Amino acid sequence: MGRLDGKVCVITGASGGIGAATARVFAEEGATVVGVDLAAGAPGDLSLATDVTDAAQVEAMYARVRAELGGIDVLFNNAGISPPDDVSVLDTSLEAWQRVQDVNLRSVFLCCKHGIPYLLERGGGSVINTASFVAVMGARPRRCPTPQPRAECSRSRASSASSSVAAACE
After folding, report:
1. 162 by DSSP, 3-state: which?
2. Are 151 and 76 in contact (CB under 8 A)?
3. For residues 152 and 133, what is the distance between their CA atoms, to the nearest angstrom?
4. Which parts of the chain are beta strand (E)?
5. pLDDT 10s per residue in the chain (170 long)?
6. What is the pTM of this model?
7. Looking at 16-167, which runs of residues are DSSP E strands?
8. Spelled out in words, what is the top-level CATH class assigned to the domain 8-165?
9. Which residues contact 86 (CB under 8 A, 6 or more apart)?
């Protein structure tokens, strides 16, 4: 018997890194895993290609999960990017800055906004928002080989937003 038996867990950014590892562990613990990523083929019992920066796609994704699996118990908001051109605030275009904010922060807001109502339908659940050590320490050269000002800002905001989400759900 696993710790997640009977639980439906939605994992964004499920195709690689932390998301893929989480999908594997959650499945080993008995969860029904919904793997969500921009491209098709994310690991899970149900794989959904979704742009988590698009409100309509996020809303439709959660509605489909509920329709097909009966409900949702866990939101793991893990989608995030740290593109190779994220090197300096002096060299970053506004468009590049916004792209990172949309994926790393806006997606957390949209997934909470549209996913939490499904958790509440089942009497509660868990929301996990991925952040990063750069959110609290900064990406200084001695700590992180590549400075990431856009990712640092977005992940620190996602970390802070988690407290507000928790307070709103009490």
Report:
1. helix
2. no
3. 9
4. 8-12, 32-37, 46-49, 74-77, 126-129
5. 899 999 999 999 999 999 999 999 999 999 999 999 999 999 999 999 999 999 999 999 999 999 999 999 999 999 988 877 766 777 788 888 889 889 989 999 999 999 999 999 999 999 999 876 555 555 555 444 455 555 555 555 555 555 555 555 56
6. 0.85
7. 32-37, 46-49, 74-77, 126-129
8. alpha beta
9. 92, 96, 100, 146, 147, 148, 149, 150, 151
